[in-house]
Design a protein that fits this description.
Keywords: Membrane, Transmembrane, Transmembrane helix. The chain is mostly helical. 75% of the residues lie in helices and 0% in strands. The chain contains 2 helices and no strands.
C-alpha cells in the first residue's frame, strides 16, 4: 500500500507541475518553447489550472490515507 501512495503522490506532483507550466504558457508568462502552440492561449491556461487542481487532489488523497 505504501508503494501505491508514493506513486500517487509522484503522479500528483507531476500533474501539478505540468498544470502550472500549461497555465504559464497559456497566459503568456512562460514563453518556452518558443514555437509552442499553447503560448498566449487562455484555453490552455484553464486546462492547466484544472490539471493542477486534480493533481493537488490526488496528492491530498495520497497523503491523507
Amino acid at each position: 500500500m505504501l508503494f501505491i501512495r508514493i506513486i500517487a503522490t509522484l503522479l500528483g506532483l507531476l500533474a501539478i507541475l505540468a498544470g502550472l507550466l500549461f497555465v504559464g504558457q497559456g497566459t503568456g508568462v512562460v514563453l518556452w518553447p518558443a514555437d509552442s502552440f499553447m503560448l498566449a492561449d487562455r484555453a490552455w491556461a484553464v486546462r492547466g489550472a484544472v490539471l493542477a487542481a486534480v493533481g493537488g487532489i490526488v496528492v491530498w488523497l495520497a497523503r491523507r490515507g
